[in-house]
Amino acid sequence: MTTGLVSPKRCADSHGDRHNDGLKLHDLSLATRSGVRGVKASEWLIAQSLHQELKTHELQPPELQPNTLVELPGSRLLMALSTREFWLLEPETEAQASPIPSGHCAPGVWPLYNQNSHAWLVLSGEPRAEMMAKLCGVDLRIEAFPVGTVAQTQMALASVVIAHHLWRDEAVFSLFVDQSLADFAWEALQDAMEEFNSVQ
To answer: Closest by alpha carbon to 174, among 193, 190, 152, 196?
Structure first.
């Protein structure tokens, strides 16, 4: 079976809408992401997927603490949602249609289908934390939510994973929402952006 690889927002590219006052919304739903889950997922990632690459760049394996995100060589990101669930994000690489994997990667390690389950939206701009305060109860200001931090919370009553990281040398929030809620999340973000911009 091959995936359709269509953005929930049906965007032709991943640039999204541009707004005044530095706030921008981008759709990266067609960027590559994958993941693994299971009691041995952390060990498997380091031993099989990351060890040789990190060794090549003379880097130590990341600690993979829950609710954190670390940068990897090649503009990739590794996000740990728990001690048993990890997402590998590639914002600069467009996903390719491929068969959905079946079975486990190794004993105690199973693939995730997050390429198909979630929309990936990116919010950039200096006042992003203040704007998100309209939609989310978590304090996303840099003092409380530094780069490399992940929150599993709600945005406008919809479940969302928010990651604070660098993208193209700029600090941004990546927001992962269920694909069925992509339109709702996009509109809620745009409404908050317009409201925020209108009072500046």
So the answer is: 152
Residues above pLDDT 70, as percent of the chain? 76
- What is the pTM for the complete model shown? 0.84
Take residue 13 and report the two structure tokens written for it: 């590219």
Helices (H), 47-138: 51-56, 114-117, 128-132
Are 50 and 61 spatial neighbours (Cβ–Cβ below 8 Å)?
A: yes
Rounded to whole angstroms, how far apart are CA atoms 78 and 97? 22
Per-residue pLDDT, 113: 85
φ, ψ of residue 103 in degrees (nearest 5): 80, 180
State which CATH number among 3.30.1360.120, 1.10.569.10, 3.30.310.50, 3.40.50.2300 fits the domain covering 17-94+104-198: 3.30.1360.120
Instruction: Report pLDDT for 132.
Output: 96
Task: Say if residue 103's pLDDT is above 70.
Answer: no
